[in-house]
Amino acid sequence: MELSILRRSRFPYAAPAWPTGLEREAPERKVGVGYDSAWARRYPVRLARAMVVDNLTRPLAHVVAAPEVRGEESLDLVDPPVIFVANHASHLDTPLLLSVLPVSFRHRTVVAAAADHFFDRRWKAHLWAGALNAVPIERHRVNRRSAELAADLVTEGWNLVIFPEGGRSPDGWFQPFRGGAAYLASRTGRQVVPVHLSGTWRLLPKGGRGLRRGLTTVRFGMPMRPDEDEDARRFGARIERVLATMADEAGSDWWSARRRAAAGTTPPPTGPDASPWRRAWALGGDPRDAERSDPGRWAVETS
Fold first, then answer.
1. How many Cα atoms are found within 13 Å in the side-chain-facing hemisphere of 301?
2. pLDDT above 70 coverage of the chain, percent
3. Which residues partner with 111 through β-bridges?
4. Half-sphere exposure of 128 toward its Cβ, with a 13 Å CA cutoff?
5. Does 20 reside within a domain?
6. What CATH number does residue 58 fall under?
7. 28-39 pLDDT, tens digit each
8. R_g of the chain, CA atoms, integer Å
9. Segment holding 78, helix H or strand E
10. How many CA atoms lie within 13 A of 25 on its CB side?
11. Burial of 192 (0-12, 13-18, 19+ CB in 10 A)
């Protein structure tokens, strides 16, 4: 019987046949945090992605979002690989950020993406791993596989983009931060570069039905490292304060935002505790026009 099965299956020149009398288990679905994205970092795929990003994604992002980049000179002070930590309000954030990175960073960067959203199906996992060099990260609980994958990639020389809020903001304001970025920086010893993205929520908001054209601003902050006596929790809080100052700057100016930061009066980036229309009004309109206003006013009024 065994000989007849082998003959019918042409083994070893083809896959062996499964005996009809035995029940066969369904193949394991390699999705979510279990998805293997290593293929997306092989040279042929990297080359194809670089062609797409440079010749399609980048021009489209500049046409749709017209990004104004500020603070890019701070990237001259870092020694790659680095961890980019950014606020997150739109699916436009990732391609926009990748499009404005210098070439030396752009094609050597992986993106931490929610395993339960971008990697829940195989076709989506293939798409986002190939298009954005995304890797699956568990966002709802601590996952050893996710943490080790991200740390290993940084150690291997890959820059990492991570959104510490764990998901897109529903109204453009910050959500509570999680400690993954600070933990990875402490574990790998690499620098953190804070990035503030403004204007993307109005172009492609969460739950929105279409993409609109508009103006955006991408701000790069000064690179950061944890102090010798600073654990990941305190370093994460410091990163959050820096991004809050950068958000304040987006609504006022550099000097005013730094004065408020020094005085400990930076408006909370989570927005006012008010009705949705009030929060939308306080967020402002066009990000470049908003820089003529002072967000400290609503902070005083609602305190």
1. 11
2. 82
3. 134, 161
4. 25
5. no
6. 3.40.1130
7. 557 788 899 999
8. 23
9. none
10. 3
11. buried
| Other C-beta atoms lying within 10 Å of the C-beta of residue 69 | 13
21, burial (CB in 10 Å: exposed 0-12, middle 13-18, buried 19+): exposed
Rounded Cα gap, residues 151 and 114, in angstroms: 16
Query: Which two structure tokens, joined as six digits, stand for 45?
Result: 């795929």
Residue 25: inside a domain? no
Whether 198 and 211 have beta carbons less than 8 Å apart is answered as: no
Phi/psi at 132 (nearest 5 deg)?
A: -120, 5
267-290 pLDDT tens trace: 988 888 877 767 777 776 444 444
Q: For residue 3, tell me if it sits in a domain.
A: no
State the helix-helix crossing angle for 180-188 and 232-251, rounded to 10 degrees: 120
Give the pair of three-digit tokens for residue 69.
């980049």
Whether this model's pTM surpasses 0.90 = no
In a domain, 39, yes or no: yes
Give tens-digit pLDDT for 89-120: 999 999 999 999 999 999 999 999 988 889 98
Distance (Å, rounded) from C-alpha 68 to C-alpha 291?
13
The residue behind tokens 């279409």 is 210
Please state the φ and ψ torsions of residue 202, each to the nearest 5 degrees.
Answer: -75, -20
